[in-house]
């Protein structure tokens, strides 16, 4: 199992890296250089990709090696995947050389051999530094080159830190030291993942959050918490990378969803896993999330421009309005500089802090609460949240103001049910459905409210018609939401 940390760095980072090596490692460094050519293969049916298998043939100094990497996990920018290597006489792949037992169920290497085709290549110059002291041994490589798929290509400029001996937190230490010298971001995706994306022609691969954090019966509180951190951090990092690639506004709304999962998870578990490092991460998350305050307006604009949904049929037909909304989105992006926020030092420092939490488990030194099964807490958490909603919700029909006031409480309670799903089946989904409908309705109400405000400034001809339509749509939406609210309040709690 390899353990490595990936850092995306600027091309001019070489001098700063050399200075850091001289000051921090004081000669305990062995240097070498090579050029690597890597061809990545899959079957015509893309069976390897479907099973999260990476297969490559690497050429280096006239020698060849084939490698299989199986599905693993990513903790922040820390990659952990089973890896198997076999030497080759030339650049022709030969799956029969691998032990049959390494392949997951459903993958037949002998059948796959006849279906192999090259999907993409990575070619790069590699500076190699072997770092050694009494406590650890780490290989640091600095790669510069390109990912190539057909006529398309992307640059490679990244540092990979691979742990040979010592504690994984040592990789985080090095990441933090380099962050003080070099503008960098954490690499959530491997070269192979980028190559697959490039080969498919899908440069913007926004992904929905998983349906729920995959907590299982018997998971400890610690294990359930780390799973939640993995889900939130992965979603955040993936979509900030997507935004840097293609600058699509939807990537911003998705990355802030990942941040929300992280903040909700830390807030939920902090009273149980009490420790200063976790409290500090909570402060960092709060401060960093405030830098994205403007994304709520961005989300409202995206709802108004959506091609599907309650508002789409009328608004999509209004070309001048669509053009105006697009201009508002571009204006927001130019005003707030999301690229600068993503590349900021506090962003990367926060991601490294979260990665360190997942590796070091600092709460273990304070109590044994982390060992408790998480299902011992779940019913209390959910009951308390539902009680808060009931106490906060006025009697009688709710207005838009009521719903906007209740939004944060609703989202907090729904988030708890997202973070901890252990032991619950279809009853959970039935209970949550009307509450989720209410939150979707709140999003549409906020978008319509923004539309009404913008019509005072929009240079379009039919503003009065749009005001009437928007008001009518709000009233109809509130009627539908009232029905969902009655269903929600009458539903029996699934826990």
Tell me what you see in this structure.
There is one protein chain. 51% of the residues lie in helices and 19% in strands. Strands 1, 2, 3, 4, 5, 6, 7, 8, 9, 10 and 11 form an eleven-stranded antiparallel β-sheet that branches. The protein has two domains: 2-203, Hypothetical Protein Pfu-838710-001 (Beta Barrel), CATH 2.40.320; 231-490, CHAD domain (Alpha solenoid), CATH 1.40.20. The chain has helices at 14-25, 47-50, 109-113, 169-179, 191-200, 221-246, 249-269, 276-290, 295-305, 312-316, 319-336, 338-342, 345-360, 375-392, 400-419, 426-454, 463-490; strands spanning 2-8, 29-43, 54-60, 63-69, 73-75, 78-81, 83-88, 116-132, 137-149, 152-165, 185-186. A hairpin with a 2-residue loop joins strand 3 (54-60) and strand 4 (63-69). The chain has 17 helices and eleven strands. The protein has 495 residues and is α+β, with helices and mostly antiparallel strands.
